[in-house]
Amino acid sequence: MKRVRSPRPELEHLTPYEAKDVRADVVLSANESPHNLPGEILDKLADRVRHDIAFNRYPDPLATRLRAMIAEANGLEPANVLIGNGGDEIIMDLVLAWGGPGRTLLDMPPTFAMYGIDARMTGTAVLEVPRRPDFTVDEEAVLTAVAEADPDIIVIANPNNPTGTMAPETLLIDVLEATDAIVLVDEAYFEFSRQTMRPHMERHPHLVVLRTFSKAFSLAGLRAGYLLAHEDVIAELTKVRQPYSVNRFTQVAAGLAFRERVVFEAGVREAMRNRDTLLHGLGAMTGVEVFPSEANFVLFRVDHASAVWRDLLHDHSVLIRDVSRTPGLEDCLRVTVGSEEEIARFLAAMDEIMASKRAAAHFGMNAVAARHSGKDGE
Ligand SMILES: *Cc1c(COP(=O)(O)O)cnc(C)c1O
């Protein structure tokens, strides 16, 4: 039998983005909204599907109506907005247009993995300026790296995923003033942090701001995101993007959600209340260190994190995100702010797991390790 020729050498060191289909009663692993679209939007969407989406026709490549709506809401022109198949597609478009062989992307790990993955996939060098132990950005180190390496793209997630921390506006302005490279401020969690760099776009044409419908808008399954940027930047991106990546259904559904965006305010307020419950609940547990968050998720550190993650899933059917193998995030787990009921279930499960750890420690055993040595033999 013939064998398949090797793909590009860059792929050898890449692992697929975690897309495991793990089933659980309580899913708090992907920073999604705990609620589907509100019924009134679903009704309108059903009506539109039946009466005016021509599925037999190619979509409008630039999603003109949605684009105009988002531009107006942000005090911009349609030429300053690009819609993508999720924010992820736009990140890739930026790397395709400003990265490539001989070019460099600077990011600040631990952070969103896609920046580094897209860079490596396109032969773009990745320059990492690690965050401090409390996950704040090391401004001096960033400015030194910018001066010395002159990167072509600088990416900062604000708030940062998976740490939940924000970089101060003054730091971002200092970075903007130090370079003419693309500075991507990823505001995927803007609706929760309520802080944006949008007001600085006029003074800084190389500042680009990314947002998404996947988090506060309950539309992770739809795949829609948008970029706010100078019209010249958008014009370059339209050269590399897939022309029909944002389909007709997505344009209509995202448009309905955006037009009715006030209805999502309740969900954002609910998430903030539940985030407080989560921060206090985890903060009160001995053996758990919890980090502050401006987003709809919380990062915490606990001994034997991967074993705790497994116990949550296997014994309590609660799925969260194990980030403990990421450099800088040793023993860290990330939990999404779910509904009140989901958070209560997660906290009760954590209480039980931590209590059994303490009980086992009392008998001089490593609780989780002891339990799992039994389990592994099953
Ligand atoms: C979720 C997320 C995105 C975008 O997600 P999409 O679903 O592709 O829109 C971008 N950046 C960060 C940091 C995120 O957490």
Blueprint of the fold:
Elements: E1 26-27, H1 39-52, H2 64-73, E2 81-84, H3 86-98, E3 104-107, H4 114-121, E4 125-128, H5 139-149, E5 153-157, H6 169-177, E6 182-186, H7 190-193, E7 207-212, E8 225-228, H8 231-240, H9 248-259, H10 265-283, E9 288-290, E10 297-302, H11 305-316, E11 318-319, E12 321-322, E13 332-336, H12 340-362, H13 367-376
Parallel strand pairs: 1-11, 3-4, 3-5, 5-6, 6-7
Antiparallel strand pairs: 2-8, 7-8, 9-10, 10-13, 12-13
Helix pairs in contact: 1-9, 2-9, 3-4, 3-8, 10-12, 11-12
The protein binds pyridoxal-5'-phosphate.
Pyridoxal-5'-phosphate is lined by residues 31, 86-88, 112, 157, 161, 186, 188, 212, 214, 220, 225.
Write a brief caption for the model.
The protein is α/β, with parallel strands linked by helices and 378 residues long. It is built from 13 helices and 13 strands.
Account of the 3D structure:
With 378 residues, the protein is of the alpha/beta class. The protein has two domains: 12-31 and 265-359, Aspartate Aminotransferase, domain 1; 39-259, Type I PLP-dependent aspartate aminotransferase-like (Major domain) (Aspartate Aminotransferase, domain 2, 3-Layer(aba) Sandwich), CATH 3.40.640.10. Helix content is 41%, strand content 14%. The protein contains 13 helices and 13 strands. The chain has helices at residues 39-52, 64-73, 86-98, 114-121, 139-149, 169-177, 190-193, 231-240, 248-259, 265-283, 305-316, 340-362, 367-376, and strands at 26-27, 81-84, 104-107, 125-128, 153-157, 182-186, 207-212, 225-228, 288-290, 297-302, 318-319, 321-322, 332-336. The strands form three sheets. Strands 2-8-7-6-5-3-4 form a seven-stranded mixed sheet, sandwiched between helices. A four-stranded antiparallel sheet has the order 9-10-13-12, with helices on one face. α6 (169-177) links the parallel β5 and β6. It starts with 25 loop residues before the first strand and ends with a helix. Residues 373-378 have low confidence and may be disordered. It binds pyridoxal-5'-phosphate. Pyridoxal-5'-phosphate binds next to α3.
